[in-house]
Design brief:
The structure holds two protein chains of two kinds.
Chain A lengths: L1 H14 L5 H20 L10 H9 L13
Chain B lengths: L1 H73 L5 H29 L6 H40 L14
The chains are: A mainly alpha, B mainly alpha.
Chain lengths: 72, 168
């Protein structure tokens, strides 16, 4: 029993648990990418200055919410 | 005797492992600090891109809007009210741009260091960013108000009432 326990403890120390730093760095990269996708989703503003086009340009404009939860 | 030897052997094995575990923990803390120091940089990059996107988009719309106003003015329409609203939207957009640049600069100015020391600067930069976003929203709202006014003055004038036809 003691031998088994010692083996488990030694394995735990050797293996050292999972490494979260890669996960955090991937999350940061994903956030930036999804932010770019949001902006690219807005229809582009053309050159036509008719009222209907102006209305479509304005309706197609979104001011996005910003996530600052990682600062808390 | 055997037990003593066993304990000594176990200690000889575990001690370096413990030291390694401590080193791993220290490395992880350093990596965590490095990630936290990138938080400010990530916000700065994202906000710079976002605010530039808003400014360019709303500026293009304003240029087209002005062209429409100039066209209607040439047709004899009274464009004073809509021009006032568009000018207000332009001014608000410029304020938003300046505030946005200040917010981005504030995030970039955060020195990488201990999280507790960085936090007040980060929160101050966040406040600036939220103010900038609010100004962009205000500019957008003013543009929508100007559009309502533009639609009003663009409506064709109703024909004058014709005299009643007398029936024999």
């Amino acid at each position: 029993m003691n031998k088994k326990l010692m083996l488990v403890v030694a394995s735990a120390i050797l293996l050292g648990g999972c490494n979260l730093s890669d996960v955090w760095q991937k999350e940061a990269a994903t956030d930036e990418k999804s932010s770019e996708i949001q902006e690219e989703a807005s229809p582009s503003v053309g050159t036509d200055s008719s009222i209907e086009t102006l209305e479509a340009d304005i309706e197609g404009t979104v001011i996005y919410d910003e996530d600052f939860s990682d600062l808390e | 005797m055997k037990k003593i030897v066993l304990v000594v052997l176990a200690l000889a094995v575990i001690a370096p492992l413990t030291a390694r575990a401590e080193e791993q923990l220290k490395n992880r803390a350093e990596v965590r600090q490095e990630i936290r120091s990138k938080v400010a940089e990530n916000h700065a990059n994202r906000l710079e891109r976002r605010f530039k996107f808003y400014y360019e988009r709303l500026s293009k719309i304003i240029v087209k809007f002005q062209a429409r106003i100039d066209y209607l003015k040439g047709k004899g329409k009274d464009t004073a009210a809509v021009q006032t609203k568009l000018d207000a939207a332009k001014a608000k957009l410029e304020s938003a741009k300046v505030k946005g640049e200040a917010a981005v600069a504030a995030f970039r100015a955060v020195e990488p260091g201990k999280w507790e020391e960085q936090k007040p600067e980060l929160l101050a930069a966040k406040d600036l960013a939220e103010e900038a976003r609010g100004l962009f929203k205000d500019a957008f709202k003013l543009l929508k108000d100007a559009l309502k006014e533009l639609k009003n003055i663009s409506k064709p004038a109703l024909p004058a009432a014709s005299p009643a036809v007398e029936e024999d």
